[in-house]
Amino acid sequence: MSLFTKKKRNIRRTREDVVFDTLNTIFMIFLCIVMLYPFINTLAISLNDASDSIKGGIFLWPREFTLKSYEHVFSQSTIFQATWISILRTVIGTGISLICTAMVAYAISRREFVFRKSVTVIFVLTMYFNGGLIPTFLLMRDLQLIGSFWVYILPGIIGVFNLIVIRSFIEGLPESLFESARIDGAGDFTTFFKIVLPLSLPVLATVSLFVAVFQWNQWFDVFLYNSSDQTLSTLQYELMKILQNSTAIGGGSQTDAFVNSGSQAERVTPVSIRATMTIVASVPIIMVYPFLQKYFVKGLTLGGVKE
């Protein structure tokens, strides 16, 4: 054991260190409570009796436990087909967008690509200017994408923000990696798939979470392009319609809305349906995060050579 290690172990924590750690812990606990309370409160309202929820006073747990709101939401005949479409567009859209965005980011990150600055400027301009809603709809119509599943995937296949993030990450990789690949006779595709992609797992995991959340939460494109085709409806769009119907029945207020389900009358309100919708739509995408979390803490150039 070196002398430096012995001295380091003998260093005692000062009073300022203890105070800082204590305040930092208190602040982080407070921040966690602030972040988690709205979700827990929404969950409690969704599990509480709808008519009782109108009285208020529900915080962390339901006062009168019931699953009537969930039964009402899942009793809709289209909810499971819509959930399947949402899962498909999230998985397929995230995978295709991730690969295409990473390939373009790799291309414009290479110094030997003489047009990389011009291409980057063109991409960035699309973040500030677009053709508008009507021209976009006409373009989708001319491309014969209206009424098809691919209208959810192709228009947003490359996100400019994600492109810039991945490009910046690739530019930070050691240049000796690419020089070694060229010396060994590797082409751009070999370099991209065997060197760049494995080393880019942290940023790809982050971007995939962004894209997955975006795809899962989308409903406006369904309203624009596929609202007449029930087989292509998504979960978010169906839940939006349930909320609209419940609000219309309840008069847009906190009053009760009675919904008949078979021979048993279920009492639901716009508030209870809104809370239930939030939980149903949030839980699946929240479950994705633990599988991606480990990549956020990995080194940026894991497995790379030293300069």
Walkthrough of the structure:
There is one protein chain. With 307 residues, the protein is mainly alpha-helical. It folds into two domains: 3-75 and 234-285, no CATH class; 79-229, MetI-like fold. It contains 15 helices and two strands. The protein has helices spanning 3-10, 15-46, 50-53, 68-74, 79-109, 116-125, 133-142, 160-171, 175-183, 188-199, 201-217, 220-225, 235-249, 270-286, 289-296, and strands at residues 257-261, 264-268. Strands 1-2 form a two-stranded antiparallel sheet. Strand 1 and strand 2 (264-268) form a beta hairpin. The radius of gyration is 26 Å and the shape is flat. The protein starts with a helix and ends in an 11-residue tail after the last helix. The model is unreliable at 252-265 and 299-307 (pLDDT under 50). It is a multi-pass membrane protein. It is found in: Cell membrane. Belongs to the binding-protein-dependent transport system permease family. One of its GO terms (cellular component) is plasma membrane. Residues 83-289 form the ABC transmembrane type-1 domain.
Write the layout of secondary structure elements.
Layout (H helix, E strand, L loop, with lengths): L2 H8 L4 H32 L3 H4 L14 H7 L4 H31 L6 H10 L7 H10 L17 H12 L3 H9 L4 H12 L1 H17 L2 H6 L9 H15 L7 E5 L2 E5 L1 H17 L2 H8 L11
Antiparallel strand pairs: 1-2
Helix pairs in contact: 2-14, 4-14, 5-8, 5-11, 5-13, 8-11, 11-15, 13-14
